[in-house]
Amino acid sequence: MVHCDDDDLAVIALGEPASREIEEHLQACALCRSSLDQWVAVVSSARSITPDDHLVAPPPSVWEGIRDELEPRATVTSLDDARRSRRPVGWLLAAAAGVGLVLGSVATFGLVTSSTAPSPSIVAQGGLDSMDGVAVAGTAAVEEDETGRHLHVTVPDLPPVEDGYYEVWMATADASTMVAVGTLGPSGDSILTLPAGMNVADFPLVDVSVEHFDGNPGHSAQSVVRGLLAT
Ligand SMILES: [Zn+2]
Asked: Cα of 195 to ligand 1 centre, how many Å?
């Protein structure tokens, strides 16, 4: 039995009608039907490449290789020509599939690198206890990574503030000097960048206060949670 030519199957996968001879053979031959299925899968994966897949450009050598292969056959303009010259259509599909493979492996690489990125190391941490009778508590930790030090504050279930917001402070142990380090958002979980050179040993107290839009940059003296960080 003479099986279908791969290039004929590729052209059919691209949407060209099959000749009667090929159609009859396909009806009788599971092997060629399976080859056709594979070409259809290649075409559909090549066509499913969207602009979003181009977030990371493949290395220049990939494009150079494709261009080098295409240039000598730049005069091929129709599927009939392609069928006559036999090679280009199959090659185009293989090139498109290759681009898909490159994009796929770039995506895989991205996943692997993001999951193995170093997690921040914890410099100091502690619990935050309720200060004003509101039954909430939280945690605070000073974390350090390659971008610097951050205060990670988590206070779940804080009630929304009327005409105001929650401000996070770091203070001396006796709370005589307080430095505002940022706002605790409605989620109750914020990672705030600490000023460079801010020493946890000098400012071990973390405080969250209710502040109002009153133009007063100082602490409102209305703390909701507070706690000492331990190194
Ligand atoms: Zn066959």
From this structure: 72
* CATH 2.60.40.200 correct for 121-228: yes
Domain assignments of the chain as residue spans, ordered by start: 6-115, 121-228
Kindly report, residue by residue over 153-203, the tens digit of the pLDDT. 999 988 888 889 999 999 999 989 999 999 998 889 999 999 888 889 999
**8: CA distance to ligand 1 center in Å?**
12
What is the C-alpha separation between 53 and 22, in angstroms, rounded?
35
* CA of 27 relative to ligand 1 center, distance in Å: 9
- Beta-carbon contacts of 67 under 8 Å, excluding residues fewer than 6 positions away, are none
What is the DSSP-derived secondary structure letter of residue 230?
A: B
pTM over 0.85: no
